[in-house]
Each structure stands twice: as structure tokens, then as C-alpha cells.
Amino acid sequence: MTKAWLSPSEFVQSLPKATVYACLYFTDESGRPLQLRSSYGVARWQVPGGNMDDGETPWQTAVRETREETGLVITKQCPLLLTHFITPRHNWPHSHIGFLFDGGTLTADQLEHIVLDPNEHTEWKLQSLAEWENHEGISQLAFARLKALDAARRSGVAGYLETVH
Fold first, then answer.
1. Strands (E), 68-157
2. What stretch of H or E contains 64?
3. For residue 42, what are the contacts with CB-CB under 8 A and spacing of at least 6?
4. Is the dihedral of CA 141, 134, 116, 60 positive or negative?
5. How far apart are the first and last CA of the chain?
6. At 12, phi and psi to the nearest 5?
7. Which helix (H) or strand (E) holds 141?
8. How many angstroms separate the CA atoms of 78 and 33, rounded?
9. Dihedrals φ, ψ of 99, to 5°?
10. b/e string for 33-66 if b means 16 or more Cβ within 10 A?
11. Are 44 and 68 in contact (CB under 8 A)?
12. Which of these, 17, 18, 24, 16, lies nearest to 145 by C-alpha position?
């Protein structure tokens, strides 16, 4: 089947739409993942990060969101741990693509200096994966992402996670 030639703007309009988010994955010196409790709607736990603004790269998004949400300033680029693809869902009309970077290990001093934006998060917590798995308020999607991040860091191989709704 032959299709008519489309101008670049027409072609772009015909492509699937997606939004992008980016995050940084941190653990403490005992290997426990850091998560923040969202203040939006139903309380939920998530790694520091958020949606990409126009003109940003995923790395710039992860750094900006982490600074806004925790006060932590990251200056050295960190390796990508996980790419996460989420299909459209009832409350989000487009696919959502995530880039999750390895923020490394936070010292006790760095943890003491976390300052949350109360408009976005109400608390932060460190727990083992087993504790997060059974923690009230963590969604299946958030735990699957956390588990994939842990596996990617342990293996040294970036992972891919697909969430189909």
C-alpha cells in the first residue's frame, strides 16, 4: 500500500504522542532506596523526579526535579539505570516514557540536609526492598519500578520496564 507523501509537520502530527519524566534513584549507605511521599491526592511513594519541561533533556529534568523536591544539588552526570515505558491509561491520554538515573549513595549528612517542598511531598523514607514491597501506600507500578532500579544497579546493566494498561 502506498501512502501519499506528508510534509514534515503533517508527518509529526501522525506520530504517537508521549510525555517524558526523569528521576534519580538514591540509596543510603545500607542500600535502602529513598522514596518521597507525594502530597497530591492519594498519598503515594516515588523516587525524586518529575515531568520534563519544554526545552529540557531527561538529565536536566532529573537534576531540576531532585533539587526542587529534596534540595539535593547534583552536579555530576549519573548513569542511566532504567528506561520505563507506560502505555496510555484512563487518566493520562498519551504514553509516558521515563529515564531513571543512578543518583548513587547518600551519606548520613546528605540525608540530614534533605528539604522537601511541602507542596509536593510530605515525608521521605529509607527502607529495604522487602519493606517497600509490603509498605502501605506504594503502588504496584512504583514497586515494580523500584525493583527494576535495584536490579539494574546490582547488575550494572541498564534495564527496560514496560507497563501496559
1. 80-86, 95-105, 121-126
2. helix 58-70
3. none
4. negative
5. 31
6. -60, -40
7. helix 140-155
8. 16
9. -120, 115
10. bbbbbbeeeeebbbbbbbebeeebebbebbbbbb
11. no
12. 24
Q: Residue range 2-24: average pLDDT?
A: 91
Is-contact 161 85, C-beta < 8 A?
Answer: yes
User: Among 106, 104, 102, which residue's Cα sits nearest to residue 157?
Assistant: 102
Local structure of 98: helix, strand or coil: strand
How do residues 74-100 score in pLDDT, each as one tens digit?
Answer: 999 999 999 999 999 888 899 999 999
**Between vectors from CA 31 to CA 28 and to CA 103, what angle results, nearest 5°?**
60
Say what the pTM is: 0.92
DSSP classification of residue 117: -
Where helices occur in 36-101 by DSSP H, the ranges are 58-70
Kindly state the cell numbers that stand for 44: 503515594
CA angle, corner 109, sides to 62 and 33, nearest 5? 50
Of 145, 10, 16, which is closest to residue 88 (Cα–Cα)? 16
Q: Grid coordinates standing for 100? A: 531513571
C-alpha cell at 110: 546528605
Grid coordinates representing 113 are: 540536609
The residue among 30, 75, 23, 63 whose CA lies nearest residue 45 is 23
